[in-house]
Protein backbone atom coordinates (compact mmCIF):
# COMPACT_ATOMS: atom_id res chain seq x y z
CA UNK A 1 0.00 0.00 0.00
CA UNK A 2 1.39 3.40 -0.94
CA UNK A 3 2.03 5.76 1.91
CA UNK A 4 -0.47 8.59 2.03
CA UNK A 5 1.08 12.05 2.21
CA UNK A 6 -0.90 14.82 3.86
CA UNK A 7 -0.24 18.50 3.34
CA UNK A 8 2.27 19.62 5.99
CA UNK A 9 1.93 16.21 7.64
CA UNK A 10 4.40 14.90 10.14
CA UNK A 11 5.40 18.32 11.50
CA UNK A 12 5.13 19.12 15.21
CA UNK A 13 3.73 22.41 16.49
CA UNK A 14 4.88 21.77 20.04
CA UNK A 15 6.66 25.15 20.10
CA UNK A 16 3.57 27.05 18.91
CA UNK A 17 0.82 25.64 21.15
CA UNK A 18 0.57 25.55 24.93
CA UNK A 19 -0.95 22.07 25.35
CA UNK A 20 -1.87 22.59 29.00
CA UNK A 21 -3.83 25.79 28.30
CA UNK A 22 -5.44 24.20 25.27
CA UNK A 23 -6.66 21.17 27.24
CA UNK A 24 -8.00 23.48 29.96
CA UNK A 25 -10.21 25.12 27.28
CA UNK A 26 -11.95 21.82 26.52
CA UNK A 27 -14.95 20.20 28.21
CA UNK A 28 -12.81 17.29 29.43
CA UNK A 29 -13.38 15.56 32.73
CA UNK A 30 -12.10 12.49 34.48
CA UNK A 31 -13.31 9.34 32.78
CA UNK A 32 -13.79 10.90 29.32
CA UNK A 33 -12.48 9.49 26.05
CA UNK A 34 -10.38 11.96 24.04
CA UNK A 35 -9.39 11.21 20.46
CA UNK A 36 -6.37 13.18 19.21
CA UNK A 37 -6.66 12.98 15.41
CA UNK A 38 -3.29 13.62 13.79
CA UNK A 39 -1.58 13.52 17.18
CA UNK A 40 1.95 13.98 15.86
CA UNK A 41 4.47 13.37 18.64
CA UNK A 42 1.63 13.31 21.17
CA UNK A 43 2.39 16.41 23.23
CA UNK A 44 -1.33 17.25 23.39
CA UNK A 45 -2.31 13.61 23.98
CA UNK A 46 -0.04 13.46 27.02
CA UNK A 47 -1.68 16.55 28.51
CA UNK A 48 -5.16 15.14 27.77
CA UNK A 49 -4.20 11.90 29.53
CA UNK A 50 -3.71 13.84 32.75
CA UNK A 51 -7.08 15.57 32.32
CA UNK A 52 -9.10 12.37 31.77
CA UNK A 53 -7.26 10.50 34.51
CA UNK A 54 -6.81 6.78 34.96
CA UNK A 55 -10.54 6.14 34.39
CA UNK A 56 -10.40 7.97 31.07
CA UNK A 57 -8.79 7.14 27.77
CA UNK A 58 -6.81 8.97 25.11
CA UNK A 59 -6.76 7.55 21.61
CA UNK A 60 -3.80 9.13 19.82
CA UNK A 61 -3.96 8.60 16.05
CA UNK A 62 -1.47 9.55 13.37
CA UNK A 63 -0.87 8.29 9.84
CA UNK A 64 2.90 8.64 10.31
CA UNK A 65 4.46 5.65 12.13
CA UNK A 66 7.46 7.79 13.11
CA UNK A 67 5.22 10.14 15.09
CA UNK A 68 3.52 7.30 16.94
CA UNK A 69 6.91 5.77 17.79
CA UNK A 70 7.92 9.07 19.42
CA UNK A 71 4.67 9.14 21.40
CA UNK A 72 5.11 5.54 22.54
CA UNK A 73 8.58 6.44 23.85
CA UNK A 74 7.04 9.28 25.92
CA UNK A 75 4.07 7.44 27.42
CA UNK A 76 6.09 5.98 30.27
CA UNK A 77 3.86 4.29 32.85
CA UNK A 78 0.62 5.82 31.59
CA UNK A 79 -1.88 3.11 30.73
CA UNK A 80 -4.66 5.42 29.53
CA UNK A 81 -3.14 6.30 26.13
CA UNK A 82 -3.72 4.11 23.10
CA UNK A 83 -1.37 5.11 20.25
CA UNK A 84 -2.61 4.09 16.78
CA UNK A 85 -1.02 4.32 13.35
CA UNK A 86 -4.08 4.93 11.20
CA UNK A 87 -5.67 7.29 8.69
CA UNK A 88 -8.43 9.37 10.32
CA UNK A 89 -10.31 9.51 7.01
CA UNK A 90 -10.88 5.74 7.25
CA UNK A 91 -12.72 3.64 9.82
CA UNK A 92 -10.71 3.51 13.04
CA UNK A 93 -10.68 0.50 15.37
CA UNK A 94 -12.79 2.40 17.90
CA UNK A 95 -16.38 1.49 18.84
CA UNK A 96 -19.30 3.68 17.72
CA UNK A 97 -20.35 6.60 19.91
CA UNK A 98 -17.55 6.25 22.47
CA UNK A 99 -15.59 9.49 22.00
CA UNK A 100 -16.37 12.49 24.22
CA UNK A 101 -13.98 14.92 22.50
CA UNK A 102 -12.79 14.38 18.92
CA UNK A 103 -9.86 16.77 18.69
CA UNK A 104 -7.69 17.82 15.78
CA UNK A 105 -4.94 20.43 15.90
CA UNK A 106 -3.42 21.75 12.68
CA UNK A 107 -4.99 18.90 10.73
CA UNK A 108 -8.25 20.20 9.29
CA UNK A 109 -6.70 22.46 6.63
CA UNK A 110 -4.86 19.42 5.21
CA UNK A 111 -8.05 17.37 5.17
CA UNK A 112 -9.78 20.13 3.19
CA UNK A 113 -6.88 20.56 0.73
CA UNK A 114 -6.78 16.78 0.16
CA UNK A 115 -10.54 16.66 -0.50
CA UNK A 116 -11.16 14.28 2.43
CA UNK A 117 -13.81 16.18 4.38
CA UNK A 118 -16.66 13.75 3.58
CA UNK A 119 -15.00 10.56 4.89
CA UNK A 120 -13.60 12.40 7.90
CA UNK A 121 -16.97 13.86 8.91
CA UNK A 122 -18.68 10.47 8.51
CA UNK A 123 -16.13 8.89 10.85
CA UNK A 124 -16.33 11.74 13.38
CA UNK A 125 -20.12 11.33 13.52
CA UNK A 126 -19.76 7.58 13.99
CA UNK A 127 -17.33 7.98 16.87
CA UNK A 128 -18.81 10.87 18.87
CA UNK A 129 -21.01 10.05 21.83
CA UNK A 130 -24.41 11.72 22.00
CA UNK A 131 -22.93 14.55 24.06
CA UNK A 132 -19.55 14.50 22.32
CA UNK A 133 -17.81 17.53 20.89
CA UNK A 134 -15.72 18.05 17.79
CA UNK A 135 -12.85 20.47 18.39
CA UNK A 136 -10.86 22.00 15.52
CA UNK A 137 -7.71 23.96 16.31
CA UNK A 138 -5.94 25.42 13.31
CA UNK A 139 -3.68 28.24 12.19
CA UNK A 140 -5.17 31.71 11.98
CA UNK A 141 -5.29 33.07 8.44
CA UNK A 142 -2.91 35.94 9.21
CA UNK A 143 0.04 36.91 7.02
CA UNK A 144 3.50 36.74 8.56
CA UNK A 145 2.65 34.15 11.22
CA UNK A 146 4.06 30.63 11.56
CA UNK A 147 2.20 27.84 9.80
CA UNK A 148 1.35 26.59 6.35
CA UNK A 149 1.21 28.77 3.25
CA UNK A 150 -1.70 31.22 3.33
CA UNK A 151 -3.38 29.44 0.40
CA UNK A 152 -3.71 26.34 2.59
CA UNK A 153 -5.09 28.02 5.70
CA UNK A 154 -8.77 28.24 6.55
CA UNK A 155 -10.39 31.17 8.32
CA UNK A 156 -12.67 30.55 11.27
CA UNK A 157 -15.66 31.36 9.06
CA UNK A 158 -14.58 28.82 6.45
CA UNK A 159 -14.28 26.07 9.08
CA UNK A 160 -17.64 27.01 10.61
CA UNK A 161 -19.31 26.81 7.20
CA UNK A 162 -17.83 23.35 6.53
CA UNK A 163 -18.89 22.05 9.96
CA UNK A 164 -22.40 23.46 9.64
CA UNK A 165 -22.70 22.01 6.12
CA UNK A 166 -21.98 18.61 7.71
CA UNK A 167 -24.65 18.94 10.39
CA UNK A 168 -22.62 20.31 13.30
CA UNK A 169 -23.69 23.20 15.49
CA UNK A 170 -20.80 25.50 16.37
CA UNK A 171 -20.90 26.31 20.08
CA UNK A 172 -17.81 28.45 20.50
CA UNK A 173 -14.99 30.11 18.59
CA UNK A 174 -11.96 31.52 20.37
CA UNK A 175 -8.23 32.05 20.47
CA UNK A 176 -5.99 29.10 21.24
CA UNK A 177 -2.83 31.16 21.52
CA UNK A 178 -1.24 33.78 19.28
CA UNK A 179 -1.29 31.69 16.09
CA UNK A 180 -4.35 29.45 16.45
CA UNK A 181 -8.11 29.50 16.83
CA UNK A 182 -10.30 26.87 18.48
CA UNK A 183 -13.76 25.94 17.24
CA UNK A 184 -15.98 23.63 19.27
CA UNK A 185 -19.05 22.02 17.73
CA UNK A 186 -21.81 19.61 18.73
CA UNK A 187 -23.49 17.05 16.53
CA UNK A 188 -26.64 18.04 14.72
CA UNK A 189 -29.90 16.14 14.99
CA UNK A 190 -29.46 14.29 11.69
CA UNK A 191 -26.56 12.21 13.05
CA UNK A 192 -27.47 8.62 12.10
CA UNK A 193 -25.59 7.34 15.15
CA UNK A 194 -27.79 9.16 17.68
Please outline what is shown here:
This protein has 194 residues and is an alpha/beta fold. It has a seven-stranded mixed β-sheet, sandwiched between helices.
Structure report:
- The chain is of the alpha/beta class.
- The protein contains six helices and seven strands.
- It has helices spanning 19-24, 43-52, 65-75, 108-113, 117-127, 156-165, and strands at 33-37, 57-62, 81-85, 99-105, 128-139, 168-175, 180-187.
- The chain has a seven-stranded mixed sheet, with helices on both faces.
- β6 (168-175) and β7 form a beta hairpin.
- The longest helix is centred in the middle third of the chain and has 11 residues, at 65-75.
- The chain is globular and about 40 Å long.
- The protein starts with 18 loop residues before the first helix and ends in a 7-residue tail after the last strand.
- Mean pLDDT is 91; it is low at 1-12 and 190-194.
